[in-house]
Amino acid sequence: MIDYVADVVDPDGVDSGRGHGRIAARWAYGIGVAGAALLISGVVNIWFAGPTTRAEKATEKRIEDTEQKNTPAFTARIKQEDPGDFPLYVLDRPLSETEKKKLHLLVGGNRHSLAEPRAAQRYLRRLGAVTDSRSTAYSIALFSERKSVLSITDMHAKIIKCRKPQAVTIIDFISQGNSGVSSVYFDLAEVNGPARVSDVDGGRRGEPYFTSMKIDLGEGEAPGALRVSAESYKETCEWVIVAEYRNSQGVFKAEIKNSNNKPFVAVGIPKNYKEWWTRIPYEGGYWQICNPAEKCTGGPNR
What we know:
Layout: H1 2-9, H2 20-70, E1 75-80, E2 88-91, H3 97-105, H4 115-127, E3 130-131, E4 137-143, E5 150-163, E6 169-172, E7 184-187, E8 196-197, E9 215-217, E10 224-231, E11 236-247, E12 250-256, E13 264-266, E14 275-280, E15 286-290, E16 296-297
Helix pairs in contact: 1-2
C-alpha cells in the first residue's frame, strides 16, 4: 500500500536519479498518506459502529424486558404434608358395623407405639376420610426466574366459597404432646385474614407474619419456603392465598393455588355430627365414642 501511494505521489521515483533523499521523501509521503487513510477509516468505522452497537443493545434490552414481563414473578410448588401421628379425620357418612370392628382392631394396645394408629389412618383414608383444617398443612416452595429482585411482603387468604360441613363421623387421634405446627396459618373466619405466626413457643402466635418478615426472590436468591395451614371450624371453605410483592416497578399481587391449580380446601366440623371417635392410648388403649349429646361409650375392656 505504501509503494502504491509513493508511486502516485512521486511517479518518477528512484528511476529519475534523484538519490537517497528522494527515496526517503517518497517513503515518508507513502507512510503519511497510508496512516491518514487508516485513521480516517477507523474514525468512520467507530462513527457508524457506535450507533449500530447501541441499536443492537437496545434491541437486546427490549427482548430481555419482554421476556421478563412474560416470565411469572414467581412460581409456587405445593405439597400437602403428612398429617403426623395425631390428626383428626372426618367422614361424610356413618361407619358400617364391619368398619367399626376393623377400627377397633386397630386401636393399638401400646401407648408408645404409633404403628397401629398409622394403620388406622391408612384404613380411614381408604374409606374416603379426610383431615380437618387443623390437621392439614401444606409445604410451599417459592421460586423466581426474574433477573431483578422482588420481595413478597404480605399474604392473606381469599375465600372462594364456603358451605356447611358435611362430616358425619369424626375420628380423633388425640395428641399426647405438642405436634408440629406450620410457619403461618390463616383464620378463615376473618375477612382477608393475614398470614399469622403459628409458633406457640416463641410467644408470637397470632401476630401477622409479614410485619417483621419478607421473602426475597429473583436475581439468584435462594427459594423461599413456608408451611401453611388454615383454620375453619364452622364451615368447609375453598380458599386461595393472595401474595403481595414489590419490585422496582411497584407493588403487585398474585394468587397461589393448590398443586392441582384448584383452591385449597379447609374442612370444618359440624355441630350435628353422629359419632366422635377418640383414640384413648391409656389402660391398654381403646376408642371412646361420643355423640353430640355427650353420651359416650367405650372403655378399657371394649
